[in-house]
């Protein structure tokens, strides 16, 4: 039986998947129906705070599980913990015992007594769509996410990361005795993750008729075509390749070793108008020791030379579980290319680099029973609650920071390689944007496999390197779609 989906829509009411229509019942009454289901929408925190207040005097003990977002921020050499938005991820109701008509023997008195039974617990999973993507229809999003989970054979999970992790773990290539990569290697590699690469041509201010070339399903295609290291094969290795051998055949060794290397590079001065076509570690002239990912070795040229390779954190066995998952993801995108599906599928790769060093906190509101080792806290709108800090006793088996670093480095390398190819063909490359390249082309070239000409931008303005500002499309990270379009069209381009 399919789970029930409730989608609160402002101004319309509550859409119910069982009736395929809006219902007049208050959401607090609809949530009391066993066995529960999925609540999907935007701004569920305020709604569920009102639900908790409505359910306080009714039978049953309701628990609202709240996950606070926290992150470490470094200011003037000091680290501070900043609190972000709070999300209610799930609810459960433990109903009181009920007397049944059945009788059972009472051995102490030699007679019979009525049997007591506790009804099944009501459980709800919340899909806070702010965590998936903005500006999406909640009804359509809920149905598509549920269909994707059913096709993969997993139950609904509350966050994109938990959905992605579950889909990866049910892979037919996932070994039962699988172990994560060594913790100290993941901890070191996390500090050298390439991240998304955003750079534009220094002399670029404004341009007309710019073509945006995009890597189609970048992460999935990379995982599907690039060998990624299996976590159990990742170790710290010594190479000791000197300058007389690094330019020869011995570099072919790194076709079979994937990961992070400590190398000595010699860099010449890069022409100012070509800065955006070189990785950041190669722009300072001179001889330097750098931490470089194996895909970035393809970016070496006459201006950037490799002198020595000493050590590295690499693996020499391919992780077939990631390959199988990417194959499934590409099939899902082809069958259902909705942005909410892409966001959930993409989250699996981010979970490879999850930081599990610190303990994490769960806040439970509404429960009257005192939990062991919990402390009382005040939560906005919910009031009194209990905070439980859960210690991490082991590294999650999904953790593989080295593989995630290779994925990010391969994405950056492909973008820079494509930008260099366009430059060599005589086209003016204006911006490298993560998995995309923006260039002025007089005639569309035949693009390499994996690249598509996606948009023609009428009027492109140079903002920050991680921004695309044009009437055609706007990409301003951290700003919602409606506000982004209004800001670009009404203020920036006026």
Task: Supply database-style keywords.
494 residues; alpha+beta; ten-stranded mixed sheet; five-stranded antiparallel sheet; 11 helices; 25% helix; globular
Structure in words:
With 494 residues, this protein is an alpha+beta fold. Among the domains are: 4-158 and 358-390, no CATH class; 198-218 and 413-492, no CATH class. Helices cover 25% and strands 34% of the residues. It has eleven helices and 23 strands. The strands form five sheets. It has a ten-stranded mixed beta sheet. Strands 10-19-20-11-21 form a five-stranded antiparallel beta sheet, with helices on one face. β5 and β6 (78-94) form a beta hairpin. α4 packs across α9 and α6 packs across α10. The longest helix is centred in the last third of the chain and has 24 residues, at 401-424. The radius of gyration is 27 Å and the shape is globular. The N and C termini lie far apart (54 Å). 33% of the residues are buried.
Q: Tally the helices.
A: 11
Percent in helix: 25-40%
Shape: globular
Mean pLDDT, to the nearest integer, reads 87
Question: What is the β-strand count?
Answer: 23
Unreliable segments (pLDDT under 50, ≥5 consecutive)?
245-249
Sheet with the most strands, sense and barrel status? 10 strands, mixed
- Rg: 27 Å
In percent terms, what proportion of residues is strand?
Answer: 25-35%
Which structural class is indicated by helix and strand composition? alpha+beta
Through-space gap between termini: 54 Å
